[in-house]
Fold Serine-threonine protein kinase.
Amino acid sequence: MADPIAGLPYWEVRFDQDGHLLDDGGLVAGLPGTGVHELFVFSHGWNNSDTGARNLYHYTFDELSHQIDQFAPAWQGKVGVVGVFWPSLLFPEDAPDTPSTPSTPAELAAALAPGLAAPQQNTLARITDLLEQQPQDPQQLANCHELLADLVTSPALADEDKGQQTVLTKPTEEVFSTLAGLASEQGDAQGLPNPFKLLWRGAREALRTASYYEMKNRAGVIGRNGLGPLLGKVAGNGLRVHLMGHSFGARLVSFALPGLPEGIGSPVASLFLIQGAFSHFSFAAPIPIDHGHQGFLAPYFDRVAGPLQSTFSLGDRAVGWWYPAASMLSNEDDQAASDLTYRWGGMGHDGFQQDGAEQFDLRPAGTAYPLQASQFYRLRGDEIISKDQSPFSGAHSDIKHPEVVWSALAGATTGVQLAA
C-alpha cells in the first residue's frame, strides 16, 4: 500500500500493454481487514509519466476525502482508493500548458518510445528518421505509411471504435494530404514550399493518430485482460467498486466490465467516465445510426449496479474535433461531414448516445443529482471543463474541479444513506 491520501487507504496497481498485472501494490492481500467497503478505482488517460498520473490521483482523492467528510460522513473510514498505471502515450505538444511549437522528430521519438515494446520502438525510430529526412520520394512516403501500421499492435475490440483505423489502410497520398489539411485547420501549418513538404506534414499527423489509435486499443485490452480479472480477485464480502477513468482511461475502466470473471457477481457499483476518448455508442443497444447492431459494451452495462455517467464539454477539442475528423477517411458511403462526425464521435464530446440517456449540467459539490441505478447520464461541463490547455486538446484534461469529483461521489452514493 502507498501512503494514504487525506486519510484514505491508497493502492497503486500497474499493468503492461497486454494487460498483464505487474504489481497490485498489495491490494489483494491488504484490502481485507482494512474496513474498506467502498473502493474507488481511477485510471489516467494519455500521460507519459507516473508523476502526472499521481498528481491527478492525489488531487482527485484528496478532494474526494473532503467531500466524504462534508456530504457522506457515514462513509468515513470505509473508503479506499486505487490509482491505475498503464503504458500510455502522449504526443509532446498535446500535454496541457505546454508550448504549441511542433516537436522535432527526435523529441517525438523520445516521448513516445517509453510506452512501446522494443519492436515498436525500432519501428518508431525508422518513422522519425524519415520525418527528419523528408525525402522527396513517393516510395519513402509509402514506406513510412506501412511502418505506421506496424506501430499499432493492440486489437481494436469494438467495431464502433475503429474509425481512425482508415488512417492506416487508405492510400498513402489520400491519408497524408487529408491529415495535413486538418492540421492546417488547427492553425498549426507552416510554410509548405512543395507537395512533399505537405505530405510529410501529413505523415507526422498520421503518427499522432496512430499513437492515439494504439493507445485507445491498448486501454481496452488492459481493461478486459487486466483490471477486470483483478477486480474479480478483490470481489466479495460486500465490497462495492466505483470505476473512474479519464480520456482513454475511461475506455480502460469500461472494458473491465467484460473482463470480470463469470460466476462471482459484479462488484461494480458505479461507473464515471471523464471526457472519455472512445465511441459514444459503446453502450448503445441499438446504435442510433445502425439499428442492426449494438455497442460492444452494451451486453455488460448491467454489471454496473448503480448509475453510469459520462462528462462532456464543447471545450474538448481532442475528442470533439480531432478524433472524428481523423476518421473522415472512412467516407466510403459519401456521407455528409456532420453524419461522419456523429458516426465517429466520442464520449467527451457529447456523452452517452443512446435511447434513455438523461442530461444534466455539472453541479456544485453537495448539490443533489436525481440519479437512479442502471441508468445512463450525460453531464455537460461546458462552463467547468473549459480551459484551453493546448491547441490540439483544448480543455480535454481540464478536469481537476470539485464539481467533477462530486459527480463521481454522487453516483457512488446513489441509493445510499449519506448522513452519519
Remarks:
- Strands lie at 2-5, 8-15, 21-23, 38-43, 79-85, 240-246, 268-274, 308-312, 358-361, 376-380.
- The longest strand covers residues 8-15.
